[in-house]
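Hi V.,

You were right to ask for the full record rather than a summary. Here it is.
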Amino acid sequence: MDRKIELLRSVPLFESQGQRGIDEISRLVRVVDLPAGRRVVTEGEPGHDFFVIASGSVRIERSGRHLRTLGAGDFLGEIALIDGGPRTATAMTETDAQLLVISQTDFGVLLERFPEIQETVLQALAQRIRHLDPDAA
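Predicted structure:
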């Protein structure tokens, strides 16, 4: 449990949380270690988890085209959980990576109980939409 607490404290998404918040979030999160080259999510498939990258890098592709590379502190998977649609991109670890994984049900709990996290996730979602579709603004 101490390792999970340390990881949560090191992630910017959770930095505004005090000890009580970190303890509560730690009950929602599982830690997953993945080797380089492992698929995290696949474009077009249903989404069931939200991921926060604790360490390593994850390559994001749509239709086989590289969109961006995410690193420690970044997160992914929120779009499919928010709108209930399929994954909008494929994510693959570029390096060995450690991910914090939150199930769809617990993602809803996280956003409901921690409005500042909800705001950060929604701001990132809006930025991703603007990045993918400049006319969306």
